[in-house]
Amino acid sequence: MKQILLIIGGGIAAYKCLDLIRRLRERGYRVRVVMTKAAQAFVTPLAVGALTNERVFTDLFDLDDEREIGHIRLSRDADVIVVAPATADLLAKMAGGHADDLATCVLMATDKPVLVAPAMNPRMWLHPATQRNVSQLRADGIAFTGPETGEMAERGEAGPGRLAETPQLLAAIEHALSGPATLAGPLAGRHVLVTSGPTHEPIDPVRYIANRSSGKQGHAIAAASLALGARVTLVSGPVALPDPPGCTVVHVETAAEMLAAVRAGLPADIVFCAAAVADWRVAGSAGQKIKKAKGADAPQLSLVENPDILKTIAAPGPERPALVVGFAAETADVVAHASAKLASKGADWIVANDVSHGSGIGSGGGGVMGGDHNRVHILRAGGVHSWPELSKSQVADRLVAEAANALNAKSKSQ
Ligand code: CTP
What pLDDT band is residue 179 in, cutting at 50, 70 and 90? Predict the structure, then answer.
């Protein structure tokens, strides 16, 4: 039975660990818990012990514990150590190598994978000291999941700092348990950047223009690239999918934010532009909610064109990735429209698909957008290849494998 050692830090999000423990136990894991002193102000060791059905460890200097199961053994028995919620203070201690309580001693004594789920006030997360500590910990090989962006427990506070949701924590823990990513895959040492999902273009603070993209294809490409050994940056618009564990995920809303995040993520060896970027945004979106006024006409929205991320990235220049792959979502004349896009966008490949409801894909007639399957045509300078209907993850595996071959062939010929 796999063993998880959960270190609960002192934050309001500590209560979410109770649900996490239940879900882990349902999946058959043994969960042992170390609680910091501050964590005990938020949840009681009694509640945690009742859910784990194990003794809860709270104090380094509890001699009984030290005789029965010292901190060295606690860390050795675990298959993975999870720190959730990780506070700014705990991250600072970890980055500095402190060992002044049981939690930090266990973390210093371990050679097992460590997964950290930060949760704190957005300003504390964005503080240069915290960001410095996070960079140090990443460089030390510590994995992170979250934080997520959203409303905080404090009234009126919003931003990055929420503890990752339980499904995301579970996925990240299971990824950590499955061992480090393939170090020797064909994309080892390469950086792959992927855009995914829709963009939301605000009309006013509560309304926006969006599209039906689910992000499933882009997220699958990110996961497939990681599986082949790449370092992966995923720039995602608003989607209902969990972050693929092991990728650096940058969450954005608008096309302008997506372009800025892609630029900040360069250089990259391969870029896959799988996002359904809104072609237009609302000119001068309203700062206040637009109200209905009796007898007044409906408001007129005037649209301006968004920057074309794919075209910008594919333009010749020193930072141009070796391979730029675009997508073409079409509802008619798929290959003809896609080959026009191959030329006009400057991409090396275009992955074209029929997103019309009549495409015959998707049970219930839902089509490609939001569905789990895709039938694509790959357009390159050398011609078109049409693939059979596959699941989106099969499309991703095959596409990334071909991209890795093309990249490696290109490097050899240079
Ligand atoms: N794309 C992008 N930035 C935009 C618009 C599109 O990066 N502002 C990328 C998409 O990620 C995709 C490709 O361009 O890889 C094709 O997108 P699509 O919407 O099909 O093409 P458009 O250029 O918008 O053409 P049209 O809407 O006329 O079909």
Answer: low
pLDDT reported for residue 139: 81
Share of the chain above pLDDT 90, in %: 64
- Residues whose CB is less than 8 angstroms from the CB of residue 199 and which lie 6 or more positions away in sequence, other chains included: 210, 237, 252, 253, 254, 255, 257, 258, 275, 276, 277, 278, 306
Based on the structure, what is the number of domains in the chain?
2
Is 295 among the domain residues? no
Q: How far from 347 is each of 2, 117, 253, 265, CA to CA, in Å?
A: 46, 37, 24, 18
State the closest ligand 1 atom to the C-alpha of 279, by its place in the atom list counted from 1.
Answer: 8
pLDDT of residue 331: 85
Q: Could you identify the atom of ligand 1 that is nearest to the CA of residue 275? A: 11
This prediction has a pTM of: 0.65
- CATH number of the domain within which 22 lies: 3.40.50.1950
Cα(61) to ligand 1 centroid in Å equals: 61
Judge whether 209 lies within some domain. Answer: yes
CATH of the domain at 374: 3.40.50.10300
Q: Which of 101-105, 153-157, 191-195, 389-393 is predicted with the least confidence, judged by mean pLDDT?
A: 153-157
Residue 293 domain flag: no
Can you tell me which residue has the tokens 């503080």? 127
Residues 168 and 228 in one domain: no
Tell me which of 200, 312, 327 to substitute to probe ligand 1's pocket, judged by most ligand atoms within 8 Å of the beta carbon: 327
What domain range includes position 161?
1-180
Answer yes or no: is pLDDT of 282 > 80.
yes
Same domain, 192 and 163: no
Domain end marker among 180, 196, 221: 180
Ligand 1 atom showing the smallest separation from residue 344 Cα: 23
**Pocket-forming residues, ligand 1, beta carbon under 6 Å:** 195, 255, 273, 275, 277, 279, 306, 308-310, 326-329, 341
**Domain contains 69:** yes
Residue 365 has pLDDT above 50, yes or no: no
- Is residue 211 part of the annotated active site? The answer reads yes
- Picking from 161, 180, 199, the residue at the C-terminal end of a domain is 180
